[in-house]
Predict the 3D structure of the following.
Amino acid sequence: MINLTDGNQPMPGELCIFVNQPTSNDLCAGAQEISVGTCNYPFEVSNLDYNTENVPLASCGGFTVFRDAWVEFPVQANQQVLIEYFSEDSDAVLALYDGNCGSLNELVCSGNSAGVGQEERLIYTATADDVLYLRVMKIDGAGTMTGTLCVSDLFSRDDCAAALAAPVKLQTGGL
């Protein structure tokens, strides 16, 4: 670094040198594209070479966002979209947006503080031809968060033919 103004004066500040490229989905503009119907999708919020961007806190706030990552998905038909994220080792918050990365409009947020090892879930009634952006936020400290993501049509999971058998124990008699 060269100080061209006065060689005798210190230059306070920070210099950051990154060895790796930042994770592509770290910013909204680099959101990974998936489709409705994508489930059991390994999704990581990386701690490596992360960037910050000027996105307001989600409306279900009351938490600090330590890291975040983005996915985008087009909606093909009017449908209720179910979004689920599960991480065994971290606490996440989900926020869904439409618009574009320079001008996002928050639609819904899952700030129910499910906690570490709990699933976060959103349901949103989407319109055909929408492109939606999902922000997955790590709120329990720095570090990488690994988990699985599912974006599905809510009613496609309501299929009697695909129902799972559940044991039922009936009791007879009074209370």
In short: Residues 55 and 104 are 8 Å apart (CA to CA). The radius of gyration is 21 Å. The domain at 24-156 is CATH 2.60.120.380 (Jelly Rolls).
